[in-house]
Write a structure and sequence with these properties.
Elements: E1 2-3, E2 9-18, E3 26-36, E4 54-56, E5 63-65, E6 71-72, E7 76-83, E8 88-94, E9 103-106, E10 119-125, E11 142-148, E12 158-160, E13 165-166, E14 172-176, E15 178-180, E16 188-191, H1 194-198, E17 217-218, E18 224-228, E19 237-238, E20 241-245, E21 250-254
Parallel strand pairs: 1-19
Antiparallel strand pairs: 1-13, 2-3, 2-21, 3-8, 3-9, 4-7, 5-6, 5-10, 7-8, 10-11, 12-15, 14-18, 16-20, 17-18, 20-21
Length: 255
């Protein structure tokens, strides 16, 4: 059984840092996304993408919503890793104008004047995998968000998990979430809510009840994900999302 999400979209990560040196209220975003390799053409011997190729996500229409009413539609990625065997590519989003490996955005104010809180930025995709093997979120839309605010924060936490984790059946297994804070702040880690992971109430289900007896968990302080896979079957695909927080901002990662 694999914990993965593979029809089109199968992994996503977002983080940001303040770039007040460039302009007031300016954020520099780093976005990573993994997708089904055979959904795109590339320079590989098999005609599919390899490291260094650039793709435009016209399949999943992945976009970046900055939270201030502006969007960057259909992201372009440079491929930084791939697997022929597991049929995935991992890309880093490019600025559509400069093709830099980061995306700059200047906000109209340090915080959202409507909510008096942080701007809520996020990656959105319409294509979580819809194969019958995907148990908990087949065919649902995807969202991975972060909070952007310039009065108290210099950036978000950064979280990363493996694109794929092959899990044993009917057994307890664990793997770590790699997290870091640019400001050196204390970090915590938790499972994302359904709204954070999809944009809608009830739009995302973490592994667990009612589909299987035991829920997937993440330790708040050690950032270790643990799951007892009782009730799962070979060949099943499961998706999950984790949120890292530092008290001022947050950043999600999903696989």
């Amino acid at each position: 059984m694999g914990i993965q999400d593979l029809k089109h979209y199968c992994f996503g990560q977002i983080s940001w840092r303040a770039r007040q040196d460039m302009a007031p209220n300016t954020a520099e975003f780093i976005l990573l996304g993994a997708y089904r390799r055979d959904a795109y053409s590339g320079s590989g011997k098999d005609g599919l993408p390899v490291r260094g190729d650039i793709i435009l996500d016209t399949t999943g229409h992945t976009s970046l919503a900055f939270g201030d009413g502006t969007f960057m539609f259909i992201l372009k990625y440079i491929i930084i890793a791939f697997s022929e065997k597991e049929n995935w590519i991992l890309g880093r989003a490019l600025d559509p104008v400069t093709e830099r490996k980061t995306i700059l955005h200047t906000y109209p104010a340090p915080a959202d004047p409507e909510t008096e809180g942080p701007w809520k930025a996020g990656i959105k995709s319409t294509h979580r995998q819809a194969l019958k093997e995907h148990v908990n979120n087949p065919g649902r839309g995807c969202q991975i968000e972060t909070l952007v605010e310039f009065t108290t924060s210099n950036g978000s936490p950064v979280a990363f998990v493996p694109v794929f984790v092959n899990a044993p059946q009917n057994s307890v297994f664990s793997f770590p979430v790699a997290v870091a804070a640019p400001d050196g702040d204390s970090l915590t880690c938790r499972l994302a809510t359904d709204v954070e992971a999809s944009g809608n109430a009830g739009g995302f289900t973490q592994p667990g009840r009612p589909l299987v007896p035991k829920p997937l968990t993440v330790d708040t302080d050690t950032y270790v994900v643990t799951w007892h896979t009782t009730g799962t079957k070979p060949g099943q695909l499961w998706s999950y999302q984790v949120m890292a927080e530092d008290g001022k901002s947050k950043a999600g990662v999903e696989a």
